[in-house]
C-alpha cells in the first residue's frame, strides 16, 4: 500500500487555502495561494522528506504516467533557507529524479515535482516586485530567457517598469505615470544567456564541448529551432498590460497579508509561448524565505 | 409553492395567475429557479433564486446552503462552458432592519459570466477593504440578520463584506457593466437587454433540459410584460 502525496490539481479551494496558511514549505504554500486565486500554475505534487523510498517511486511513476511525461521538473523546498541551499529547476528522468529526491531527503528538504517546461522557448519572463512602502515594479526579460536568469541574480532585466505611491491597503488603479528603464542592452544580455546555457544548462544534460560555451549554446539552440533568443522581440508592454499585472500583484499581496504582514514580495511568472498566457511559479517573501540567525 | 402576501415582483412572477412572458431556464428541486436577469447586459447572465419568498440566502440555514452551493457550482459550470471561462456569483443580501445594497428583499444570486473575476473582486475591495473569507457557502448563515455583500469568483471561493451600505444599489451590475463597456446601462429598471435575455433563456434551456448537467428542468417562471422595459 503506497501513500499518495498531495497533487496541487486535486486540492479543493479550502485545502489550497489551508496549505497556504500552513506555510510549511514556502514554494508549495505560494503555489497553493496562486491556484486558490485562479492564476495559472503547472500541476505539481509535494514529496515531503519523510516519504519512504517506495512511496517516492510510486508517486514519481503516478505523476509521469498520469501526465504522460518523460521527465519531471524538480524544485526543492526546505522551509526557511540559510543561504546556499541546493538549487532545483532541472527537468530529470525518473531515475535521476529518484536520486535527486533521495539526496534531498538526507538534507531534510521536500521536493516539488512539476510538469516540465522548455526553458529555451519562453516568450516572456516576469518578476512583479511589491514593496510595501509603495512601489510596484515589473522586471521583464523577452523571448529565449528564463525566469531563473532573473531570480538567481544572473542577469539584469531587459526592461523594468515601475509605479510609486501604491497604497497596498486600499486598491486604486495604478497612476498612468510609469517609469520605464531599458536596463541592459539586449546584445549584452544575449551573451550572458548564451554563456549560462553553454556553461551550465547544456552540461547538465550531457552536452559540452572544449570550445566557447557561447558558440556551443548558439549552435545547439539554432539546431533545435529555439531561435527566440536571436529573433524574438520583447512584446510591447502598454499601460493596460501593466495595469493587469498590477491588479494581479495587488490581489496576491492582499491575500498574502492574511497569512503574514510583508515588506516585500516577488511574484514570478513566465509566458511559456504556448498561447495560454502567463504561468505563475511562486510568490517569494524574503522575510519567510531566509532564516535570520 | 409558497407565495408571500406582500408586494414582491418575483413572487408575483412565480405565481401562476399572470399575463406574462415565460423566462424560466430550469427549476431545481421545485424550490429554486434559474432565470435570465432583467438587464441582461451580457448573454448568460442569470439569477438563481428561491421560489418562495426568502429575504436572503443567509436565512436559508447552513444545511440548505450546502445543497445550494452544489447547485450553484453545477450552474456555474454550465454557464462557464457555454459562455466564458469565468463566472462570478454575487448577492446583495438585505438585513433584518437594513436593506444594505439590495434592490428587493426576495433573495437572488447573480450568476454572471465575466472576462476577469479578479478585476471584479478588486472593485469590491476598492469600495470596502474589510473582506471576510468563508470556506463554505453554509457559513453565510452567520449573516442572517445583517445586510451583506457576497461574492464568489470561482469554485470554493466565498467572500463577504458587511457594512453593505458602503456599496451602492446594483453594485455588482455597475462593476460588471462597466467592464463590458456598458457602464451607463447597468440599471435593469431602464435597460432590460431583452434580446440577450431571450437568447440566454433559449440557449440555456436546451442545455439544462436534457439533464446533461445533472440538473433537470421542471415547471416554469414568467416575467410580467410590465417589467420588460427596453
Short structural summary:
By secondary structure, chain A is of the alpha+beta class. Chain A has 10 helices and 11 strands. In chain A, strands 9-8-7-6-10-11 form a 6-stranded antiparallel beta sheet.
Folded structure, characterized:
- The complex is a heterodimer of chains A (293) and B (230).
- Chain A is α+β, with helices and mostly antiparallel strands and 293 residues long.
- Helix content of chain A is 37%, strand content 20%.
- Chain A contains ten helices and eleven strands.
- Chain A has helices spanning 13-22, 26-36, 53-66, 94-106, 147-151, 186-204, 213-223, 228-231, 239-256, 286-289; strands at 6-7, 44-47, 72-77, 90-92, 110-114, 124-131, 135-141, 159-163, 179-182, 264-271, 278-284.
- In chain A, strands 9-8-7-6-10-11 form a six-stranded antiparallel beta sheet. Chain A has a five-stranded antiparallel beta sheet with strand order 1-2-5-3-4, with helices on both faces.
- The mean pLDDT of chain A is 89.
- Residues 216-230 of chain B have low confidence and may be disordered.
- In chain B, strand 2 (26-28) and strand 3 form a beta hairpin.
- In chain B, strands 2-3-4-6-5-8-9-7 form an eight-stranded antiparallel beta sheet, sandwiched between helices.
- Chain B has helices at 9-14, 62-82, 117-127, 171-179, 194-209; strands at residues 20-22, 26-28, 32-36, 46-50, 86-93, 109-114, 131-134, 148-152, 158-161, 222-224.
- Chain B has 230 residues and is of the alpha+beta class.
- Chain B is globular.
- Chain A binds chain B through residues 12-14, 16-17, 36-38, 169-172, 244, 247-248, 250-251, 254, 258, and chain B through 86, 116-119, 121-122, 125-126, 129, 133, 135-136, 153-157.
Give a quick set of tags describing it.
heterodimer; A: alpha+beta; five-stranded antiparallel sheet; 10 helices; B: alpha+beta; eight-stranded antiparallel sheet; two-stranded antiparallel ribbon; 5 helices; 27% helix; 20% strand
Amino acid at each position: 500500500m503506497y501513500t499518495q502525496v498531495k497533487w496541487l490539481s486535486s486540492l479543493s479551494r479550502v485545502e489550497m487555502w489551508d496549505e497556504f496558511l500552513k506555510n510549511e514549505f514556502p514554494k508549495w504554500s505560494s503555489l497553493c495561494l496562486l491556484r486558490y486565486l485562479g492564476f495559472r500554475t503547472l500541476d505539481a505534487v509535494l514529496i515531503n522528506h519523510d516519504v519512504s523510498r517506495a512511496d517516492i517511486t510510486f508517486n514519481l511513476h503516478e505523476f509521469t504516467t498520469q501526465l504522460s511525461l518523460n521527465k519531471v521538473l524538480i524544485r526543492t523546498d526546505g522551509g526557511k533557507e540559510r543561504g546556499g541551499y541546493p538549487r532545483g529547476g532541472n527537468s530529470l528522468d525518473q531515475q535521476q529524479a529518484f536520486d535527486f529526491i533521495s539526496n534531498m531527503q538526507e538534507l531534510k528538504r521536500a521536493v516539488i515535482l512539476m510538469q516540465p517546461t522548455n526553458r529555451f522557448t519562453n516568450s516572456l519572463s516576469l518578476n512583479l516586485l511589491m514593496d510595501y512602502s509603495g512601489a510596484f515594479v515589473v522586471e521583464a526579460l523577452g523571448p529565449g530567457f528564463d525566469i531563473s536568469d532573473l531570480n538567481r541574480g544572473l542577469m539584469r532585466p531587459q526592461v523594468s517598469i515601475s509605479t510609486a505611491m501604491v497604497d497596498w491597503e486600499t486598491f486604486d488603479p495604478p497612476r498612468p505615470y510609469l517609469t520605464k528603464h531599458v536596463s541592459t542592452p539586449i546584445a549584452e544580455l544575449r551573451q550572458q544567456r548564451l554563456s549560462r546555457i553553454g556553461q551550465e544548462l547544456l552540461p547538465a544534460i550531457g552536452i559540452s564541448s572544449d570550445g566557447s560555451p557561447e558558440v556551443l549554446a548558439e549552435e545547439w539552440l539554432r539546431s533545435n529551432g529555439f531561435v527566440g533568443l536571436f529573433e524574438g522581440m520583447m512584446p510591447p508592454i502598454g499601460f493596460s498590460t501593466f495595469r493587469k499585472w498590477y491588479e494581479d500583484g495587488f490581489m496576491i499581496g492582499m491575500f498574502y497579508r492574511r497569512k503574514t504582514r510583508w515588506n516585500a514580495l516577488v511574484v514570478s511568472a513566465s509566458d511559456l509561448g504556448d498561447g495560454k498566457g502567463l504561468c505563475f511559479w511562486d510568490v517569494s517573501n524574503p522575510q519567510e524565505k531566509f532564516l535570520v540567525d | 409553492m409558497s407565495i408571500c402576501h406582500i408586494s414582491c415582483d418575483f413572487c408575483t412572477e412565480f405565481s401562476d395567475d399572470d399575463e406574462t412572458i415565460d423566462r424560466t431556464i430550469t427549476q431545481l428541486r421545485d424550490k429554486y429557479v434559474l432565470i435570465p436577469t432583467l438587464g441582461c447586459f451580457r448573454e448568460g447572465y442569470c439569477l438563481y433564486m428561491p421560489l418562495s419568498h426568502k429575504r436572503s440566502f443567509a436565512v436559508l440555514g447552513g444545511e440548505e446552503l450546502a445543497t445550494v452551493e452544489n447547485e450553484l457550482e453545477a450552474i456555474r459550470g454550465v454557464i462557464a462552458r457555454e459562455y466564458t471561462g469565468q463566472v462570478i456569483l454575487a448577492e446583495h443580501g438585505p438585513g433584518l432592519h437594513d436593506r444594505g445594497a439590495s434592490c428587493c428583499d426576495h433573495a437572488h444570486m447573480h450568476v454572471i459570466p465575466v472576462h476577469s473575476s479578479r478585476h471584479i473582486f478588486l472593485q469590491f475591495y476598492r469600495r470596502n477593504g474589510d473582506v471576510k473569507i468563508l470556506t463554505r457557502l453554509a457559513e453565510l448563515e452567520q449573516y442572517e440578520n445583517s445586510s451583506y455583500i457576497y461574492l464568489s469568483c470561482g469554485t470554493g471561493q466565498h467572500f463577504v463584506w458587511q457594512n453593505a451600505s458602503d456599496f451602492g444599489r446594483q453594485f455588482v451590475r455597475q462593476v460588471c457593466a462597466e467592464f463590458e463597456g456598458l457602464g451607463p446601462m447597468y440599471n435593469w429598471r431602464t435597460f432590460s437587454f431583452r434580446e440577450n435575455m431571450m437568447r440566454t433563456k433559449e440557449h440555456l434551456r436546451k442545455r439544462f433540459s436534457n439533464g446533461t448537467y445533472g440538473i433537470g428542468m421542471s415547471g416554469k417562471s414568467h416575467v410580467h410584460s410590465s417589467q420588460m422595459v427596453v
